[in-house]
Design brief:
It contains 9 helices and 12 strands. The protein is an alpha+beta fold.
Length: 238
């Protein structure tokens, strides 16, 4: 993977890295040390990079600017979206083990900058700061749990229930409270949501009016607001 220096002030990069959950315990000096050994990858809008199994085990990727779609290609050549990430996010579970036998792809939905941390530096950080290791373990355990729930839903539920379950998961994991109620801040297209639940775009488009009719959600200015958590859970079959 080729790398270039990020066109961001060092203090801004440090601030955004502190948004990454498991890096929050780091001191200023520790963040400085992390940056000295890190490299950077810049992606333009629409640019795709495939992260091989070997690369996944060698580097932790941290998004410090922009927005990325993280996905794998199914045997049918369909994209299966794992997540859509914004600044301050760890990309998949890279840097520890080769999680996938196939490539993980990252696609820039906005001009993006990724910080690349070598595994040896990540392991040294965990050994020196046990709080980082505990926070990282919680992050990875949560991701495994959520992914297992998604796969189970895909096998057992219809599109409406799968979409409701996914929206509930997204509002729980990344939702923010606004003057107009709980909102999912990331803009997900119907295509992306569909590829996260094993459905096509048209099926997701048909499901949203049903969720609105049930009083679960409302879509305004391309953002999803949750109106009734209990109704959303009912639609998810929980």
């Amino acid at each position: 993977m080729s790398t270039i220096r990020a066109n961001l002030p060092t203090e801004e990069i440090k601030r955004r890295l502190s948004w990454v959950d498991f890096l929050a315990p780091l001191s200023e000096d520790e963040l400085d040390g992390l940056l000295r050994s890190a490299s950077f990858l810049r992606l333009e809008v629409g640019e795709v990079r495939a992260i091989s199994a070997e690369e996944q085990s060698e580097r932790m990727l941290l998004l410090v600017d922009g927005q990325l779609q993280v996905y794998v290609m199914a045997p049918s050549e369909r994209e299966l979206t794992l997540s859509v990430l914004t600044s301050g996010s760890a990309v998949a579970s890279t840097g520890l083990v080769a999680r996938w036998a196939r490539d993980v792809c990252i696609k820039a939905l906005e001009p993006s900058v990724v910080c690349c941390v070598d595994r040896k530096d990540l392991e040294a950080l965990v050994r020196a700061n046990p709080e980082v290791g505990l926070a990282l373990a919680r992050l990875l355990a949560t991701r495994v749990m959520l992914m297992e729930d998604r796969w189970a839903d895909m096998a057992e539920k219809d599109v409406l229930a799968r979409l409701a379950g996914l929206l509930y998961m997204l509002i729980e994991s990344e939702g923010v409270m606004t003057n107009e109620g709980p909102m999912i801040p990331t803009h997900y297209t119907h295509q992306q949501l569909g590829s996260m639940i094993g459905a096509n775009r048209e099926a997701v488009t048909r499901a949203f009016p049903e969720l609105h009719k049930e009083g679960c959600v409302e879509v305004r200015k391309r953002r999803i607001y949750v109106r009734d958590f209990d109704a959303l859970l009912d639609c998810a079959g929980e």
